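Re: beginner question about structure tokens

> Can someone show what the tokenized structure looks like for a real chain? I only ever see the sequence side.

Sure, here's an example I had lying around. Input first:
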Amino acid sequence: MISTFLYDEYASAVRDHAMTLTGQAVSVNLVGGQTLTGTLTYTSTTGPQGSTVYPSVLTVTVSTKVHKVRLDHVSSIGQG
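And the corresponding structure tokens:
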């Protein structure tokens, strides 16, 4: 069983990488071995008292189909 700390570290790393690649063409490798290649969208919002709120899903648009992917289902993200 994965500890909460390790999961938080992993999700944070995926989230930070997704933030830098938002709006770009990417390949998102999923835990089950599937790959989605398309345009990545992942943006934070401003929450209560100016805090930053990060979504638990990212969006990959492949052609015209939109795929919502939970951060814990992503094994890696790369350009292209």
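Each token stands for a local structural state, so reading them left to right follows the chain. Residues 6 and 50 are 27 Å apart (CA to CA).
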